[in-house]
Specification:
The complex is a heterotetramer, with two copies of chain A and two copies of chain C. Chain A has a single domain, classed as P-loop containing nucleotide triphosphate hydrolases (Rossmann fold). The N and C termini of chain A lie far apart (43 Å). In chain A, helix 7 links the parallel strand 8 and strand 9. Chain A is 42% helix and 22% strand. In chain A, helix 1 packs across helix 5, helix 2 crosses helix 11 and helix 7 packs parallel to helix 8. Chain A is of the alpha/beta class. In chain C, the strands form two sheets. A three-stranded mixed beta sheet of chain C has the order 2-1-6, with helices on one face. Chain C has a three-stranded antiparallel beta sheet with strand order 4-3-5, with no helix packed on it. The chains are: A alpha/beta, C alpha+beta. Chains A and B meet through helix 5, helix 6 and helix 7 of A and helix 5, helix 6 and helix 7 of B. The structure holds adenosine-5'-diphosphate (2 copies), magnesium ion (4 copies), nickel (II) ion (NI) (2 copies) and zinc ion (2 copies). One magnesium ion binds next to helix 2 of chain B. One magnesium ion (MG) binds next to helix 5 of chain B.
Amino acid sequence: MLDPRRAAVDARLEGVKRIVAVTGGKGGIGKSFVSSALALASARAGRATGLLDLDFTSPSDHVILGFETGFPTEEFGIDPADHHGIRCMSIAHFAGDAPVPMRGDDVTNALLELLAITRWKELDLLVIDMPPGIGDAALDAMRLLGRAEYVVVAGSSRVVLESVRRTVRLLQDVRVPILGIVENMRRKEDDGVRRLAEAQGLPVLGTVDFDETLEDALGDLDRLAATTAVRSLAAALLPVVFPAGR
Amino acid sequence: MLDPRRAAVDARLEGVKRIVAVTGGKGGIGKSFVSSALALASARAGRATGLLDLDFTSPSDHVILGFETGFPTEEFGIDPADHHGIRCMSIAHFAGDAPVPMRGDDVTNALLELLAITRWKELDLLVIDMPPGIGDAALDAMRLLGRAEYVVVAGSSRVVLESVRRTVRLLQDVRVPILGIVENMRRKEDDGVRRLAEAQGLPVLGTVDFDETLEDALGDLDRLAATTAVRSLAAALLPVVFPAGR
Amino acid sequence: MHEFALAESVVRATLQTAESEGMTAVTRVVVQVGELQQIKKDVFEFALKQVHSDDPRLADTVLVVEIVPARFSCRVCEHGFTLAETGEHDADAKEAIHFVPELAHAFMRCPACGSPDFEVAEGRGVGIASIEGERPDA
Amino acid sequence: MHEFALAESVVRATLQTAESEGMTAVTRVVVQVGELQQIKKDVFEFALKQVHSDDPRLADTVLVVEIVPARFSCRVCEHGFTLAETGEHDADAKEAIHFVPELAHAFMRCPACGSPDFEVAEGRGVGIASIEGERPDA
Ligand SMILES: Nc1ncnc2c1ncn2[C@@H]1O[C@H](COP(=O)(O)OP(=O)(O)O)[C@@H](O)[C@H]1O
Ligand SMILES: Nc1ncnc2c1ncn2[C@@H]1O[C@H](COP(=O)(O)OP(=O)(O)O)[C@@H](O)[C@H]1O
Ligand SMILES: [Mg+2]
Ligand SMILES: [Mg+2]
Ligand SMILES: [Mg+2]
Ligand SMILES: [Mg+2]
Ligand code: NI
Ligand code: NI
Ligand SMILES: [Zn+2]
Ligand SMILES: [Zn+2]
């Protein structure tokens, strides 16, 4: 049996100029925050922006950005709803708040299906909130999104650093391009992330402090855009994603 | 082909009086902290205690408790090394700090293999640091560890609550016993977790505040045991796990 | 009508195969559609005709669409079951599964033991069972 | 010698099968051991004899241990390869894989493309290929 979906994936992403995949080590490190904030900043900078949440277990971007999770419209495929300039797609659009327990093959299938039917059209930037872990979801996303460039989110806890180190080694093993590391939720001066980055030969693109005001701003784009966390993240990533003059 | 390992799993756990599995929603919520702290408190209370880290992607208990990750000794199977009264087992014992990218089937196999060869012997309590997510690892652990009772770790961020709610619904769907919810990393008064617990008909077993001193205490059992975080966790869970007189 | 996106995938995959196998004309394509995804056969046939690219190799292709019954098998209790046995589902559940069949795990349960941990052994989504064509050397 | 734990699993599973099939004696058990796990055949045979429970049904059992060559298949580039083709591994990697064969994904790479995302198509670990015995009614 030939799977026709593989043939469609690249075509669906044809109109996308750049794909930035946000990954990290363990969960809770801020992948969804960084993905959502980057998409928000990009849209506010006037760029045609998409955001694909690939965490099927705990999708979060709809909570952070406050987009509705009703069914997207069907139009020769599915059309990611525009949320104040960000075209968003998430498993939450379909599952609502039901848990979606899926095994490896199911994850592979669901990912292929989403990529095969979603029409992103013309985008300057598609941000991928990568699945946590290094199992089927992450491996398939890396395999299918061949053009993606990676941003690694890190934190300075020893627990986090150990897991980020594993992730970076894997990305290097599978030879995907890594744009650099973003340190997130910094609470105090500490050079753990900088040292990890140096050891792996990667740039630290920026540091985002732990921001007490973030939680209350979740779901409200204007308040979010004004937080220190989103503003430092934007300052760290926009120049990398849209270098001057491009 | 008959898989002989299934027949061994129950036998290996025969000498274990109680199995408590620590789960939660997304990663970063404190499952490894709660698992490690519970194991530490149990051992210090004089109970024969084991700790099994089932997060193959980002094993963390060895970082939190500071146990060595060399190969365990072989003795009619493998013998979890005693770390100051806690018998610990983790994929990190075998993988060191290499990333272990595994697909669903691999995870199922690795889990079965570990459960089939590890000899826990007599334990009052075996704490399971459950795999994140609700994929193969979590589903198989629930299936294979039929006697486990669950503690759910939650936090009050809206992002976290949404994911904890999904996890609780899944646990209820698969009808495993849930001891209750522990709120972790509380930063300010907030009744999100209490309301979630009430809505699901579950007790809140206790609340652990965010503890600034925890990070520096990682890896040092005496300092860890003295932190407010570990002490409040112990106060919340020991009475549940070892009710008076048992 | 996300059927168009799926139909387009089928046409793309068919042309890729025609290309790699050096076919000058595709005579027959058999597409199997899993019952689980609840794609209407006529809608899909219509979509396939619409997207039937203007590639001359597809000009006289006979298209066969077969519906494959869904078969499930529970990983917990080993019970085997059919779609009908999973009971009635509300419109949202059906719609979700229509888009992404794996959402069966969010909305369906094993009728014997209640577990969502079942395998979709057959009849999941869209697959191409065969592509027949003419080659210049044949 | 964690081979004992595996051998014990084989004995337990064999007795469970004997029980459920009502065998009065198990005459022959064929155990297949995957090359990947690098279990020494004689060590495993020795372990199996040692744990050979004192159950009378196992008194005259002929035990056959077969080593199954490992075959890998890369999910990225589709290259098929053998254990020898993955090159030399250090003692720690070998030891880790001996305990948990899936750690191949931590220490081995596809020789063609370098990916750790390969399938162990055959020759992973310990399996029971067949259990033959006598039944009172036979
Ligand atoms: N810089 C920050 N300051 C404050 N809170 C943050 C920051 N980054 C992330 N968070 C919060 O931390 C939690 C985990 O972040 P999230 O992006 O969901 O992590 P991940 O996607 O890696 O699991 C969320 O509640 C999020 O709002
Ligand atoms: N109560 C707490 N106070 C301070 N830090 C905590 C607390 N609980 C957990 N942490 C820290 O938060 C991070 C994530 O916790 P962890 O237990 O690894 O989460 P999980 O296992 O759910 O991914 C770790 O760095 C851990 O040390
Ligand atoms: Mg996330
Ligand atoms: Mg953990
Ligand atoms: Mg399935
Ligand atoms: Mg494998
Ligand atoms: Ni449709
Ligand atoms: Ni051994
Ligand atoms: Zn069932
Ligand atoms: Zn390869």
